[in-house]
Amino acid sequence: MRNITNFQTDLLRTFVSVIDLGAYTKAGDALGRTQPAISLQMRRLEQLIGAPLIKQAGRSLLLTKEGEMLLSYAREILRLNDEAASYFNRGKLSGVLRVGLPNDYAVAFLQGVITEYTRQHSEISLEIYCGWSADVLDRLRADELDLAIAMVNGERAQYLSRSWIERPVWAASDRMHFDPTVGVPLAAHPQGCAYRARMIQALDAAQLRWRVAYTGPGISGLQNAVINGLGVSAMTRYTMLSGMRVLDENDGLPALAEIRVGLFYKHPRLSDAGIRLVNHIIARLDEAGVSGDPVKRNVELDRR
Fold first, then answer.
1. Could you tell me the maximum CA-CA distance found in the chain, to the nearest angstrom?
2. Residue ranges of domains in the chain
3. Disulfide: which of 74, 163, 226, 252 matches 180 by Cβ 3.0-4.6 Å?
4. CATH architecture of the domain with residue range 169-251
């Protein structure tokens, strides 16, 4: 019989809490333990792994390669553990859930997934905040949101639990005809939008002239602008509507760079209702064929 190492969930919870809250003392406060007790648990976990999980660089802490890998597994183990505990406790889910969604993504699809969950649990109150991805993540860091879906930029993506790839396509009105070599009219969100940046980067790389013919923060306004022929825009399969058609290289337009989207939350700050919502979102993404693998990350922390 092979020797199996069992990772105790309390050790994994300590590890994730240190990462998510950014400090040993904050993790101790959240878990009701002293800072020395948190340090002891981290040493016990490192003994089980057989390698350091966190290394110190000046006044900062960095995850080691082993720490990055363990964090991915630890989040999944705790998510499933806490969902099972919530189910068997049979407690009625209640409270307020504050969710952040990005302006520059398929907000309608995500809102449908989230409101479906709250309809199943009428005692839960939902507060949705829509903004640019950077703003949404800033609010999560400040504990003004419980969980968020946002664009992932760079390898260091603090609080990232799951990520998946979206491949934007060029969308135009069924009735719109234009010559890209003469100039491309764009319907776009304001500066700061990942989709806007990818459109401009692709056109510049292809040495095609462009102009912004429509600018607006809301997805519905952008969709209407495309359908009415004001301009072309970058869309995903969730934001394509009847009356739109997809343009590609055959129409003279370059391919758009893919976009990585992520589900973010601080595990120690999340209630039972929040954990169940996270699992509901992941299940719906899996069904839609867009959910990716748990991510591996490198997060810089301050020891306070």
1. 71
2. 9-85, 169-251
3. 252
4. 3-Layer(aba) Sandwich (3.40)
CB 151 within 8 A of CB 133: yes
pTM: 0.76
- As a whole number, mean pLDDT of residues 250-261 equals 91
Amino acid of residue 275:
I
9-85, CATH topology level = Arc Repressor Mutant, subunit A (1.10.10)
* Tens of pLDDT, residues 51-71: 999 887 776 677 999 998 899
